[in-house]
DNA sequence: ACTGTGGTGAGAATCGTTCTCATGTTGCCC
DNA sequence: GGGCAACATGAGAACGATTCTCACCACAGT
């Protein structure tokens, strides 16, 4: 049970990862990797852009941040709760609200099953203009 | 009503646009711009890649094709029906089924209204493995 | 045919993202 | 407390999709 152990952590707590986590804690809308990189610089830390990308990808993989794509296909991130959810995002200021929709989850699974599709996942984002920006 | 006429076609039927339309008619899954460009070449036509991009963007704008982003953020297109719908896409072979979900439309509008968001739009795609690829 | 407004294409330019690889850190066993 | 192997980092190069530039071409209406 040593060589076949799949539980190898492989993630070490480094200064850089702490800086990224700290930056993520500082906002609650979606930001691009470059914006997050800038934020870290503003906090007086120095972390390479490549490391920011690597760390964000790892956090997304671990389910600790949400990653989605804006209209230009650019990846944007934000920290998130650990339950499955979707987002209601303000098109103007970026304000984001997490929403849950068990009915939607059920619907997507039903539709997929109906067509024989397996191993289902889905993306759902809602965009609008928030009360502040009306 | 001449200078303010918003109905100016501004779109001319050229050999290139016909070639793109023809290529789009030849498949019913989502393809990248480069793949569509290759398809056109295989059909014996020659159209610049930039023109393919321009034409696809115009068609998407006009609602004649759907454009979405794959997991890498790359834009992919396919021709579509003109009613609002979503897609069930095979992660492996790209086979695509258009699906409609009035309930989802209602749900997104309700959620948005509940939080005071206006001018709502949404994106929803379902990914899975189709029966063929199981 | 003539002309002006779009349209086109080759290649350069952008820009987000990933890769390379030499160097710095960390965890850990002694 | 030292030593080592594995993992992490960063600077910059490389990549790849998309857009821009700009000189040239084609369509539509006279």
From TrEMBL, chains A, B:
InterPro entries: FUR (IPR002481), Fur_C (IPR043135), WH-like_DNA-bd_sf (IPR036388), WH_DNA-bd_sf (IPR036390)
Record keywords, A-Z: Cytoplasm, DNA-binding, Metal-binding, Repressor, Transcription, Transcription regulation, Zinc
Primary location class: cytoplasm
Gene3D superfamilies: 3.30.1490.190, Winged helix-like DNA-binding domain superfamily/Winged helix DNA-binding domain (1.10.10.10)
Location in the cell: Cytoplasm
Any coiled-coil regions, as ranges: none
Subunit structure: Homodimer.
Family classification: Belongs to the Fur family.
Protein name (Swiss-Prot/TrEMBL): Transcriptional repressor
Native species: Nocardioides potassii
Taxonomic lineage: Bacteria, Bacillati, Actinomycetota, Actinomycetes, Propionibacteriales
